[in-house]
Amino acid sequence: MFVGCPKKKPMVVVFDAISGKKIASLVIPAGIDDLHFDTKSGRLYASCSESALIVIEKVAGEYKIVEKKPPQDSRTCLWSEGVIYLAVPKQEGTEGPEILIFKAKSVSTKP
């Protein structure tokens, strides 16, 4: 189970859903609003106002941020069938608010 903590010490905390024990915690950019877990890739997507969209993956037994997508000040996103739709307010140099679309990358399976 993943829990996003948005304010004082922004982080994602990972708990075992059966025992309730804390497994890990990861410091993330501030302002988390949405968390979406992709069961196919094992990646966690978090929309945060300080870094728009971050991708978290378990690498060598440890949760790490593997990618950050700009722009700033974005919060709300929707995960649907391998695609993230990210609502972005008007940014400097743009005509208005936007919906950015990110398709999940496939995961390589090395023996």
Question: Overview of this structure, please?
Answer:
The two termini are 27 Å apart. A four-stranded antiparallel beta sheet has the order 4-5-6-7, with no helix packed on it. The model has no long low-confidence stretch (mean pLDDT 85). The chain has strands at 2-5, 11-15, 22-27, 32-38, 43-48, 52-59, 62-69, 77-80, 83-88, 98-103. The protein is built from no helices and ten strands. The protein is mainly β and 111 residues long.
Overall form: globular
Describe the sheet with the most strands: 4 strands, antiparallel
In the sheet with the most strands, the strands line up as 4-5-6-7
Number of strands: 10
Estimate what percentage of residues fall within beta strands: over 45%
Provide mean pLDDT, rounded: 85
**Quaternary organisation:** single chain
Helix amount, in percent?
under 10%
Order of helices and strands: EEEEEEEEEE
Number of helices: 0
- Whole-number radius of gyration? 14 Å
Structural class: mainly beta
Distance between the termini: 27 Å
Low-confidence stretches: none
How are the SSEs placed, and which strands pair?
Blueprint: E1 2-5, E2 11-15, E3 22-27, E4 32-38, E5 43-48, E6 52-59, E7 62-69, E8 77-80, E9 83-88, E10 98-103
Antiparallel strand pairs: 1-2, 2-3, 4-5, 5-6, 6-7, 8-9, 9-10
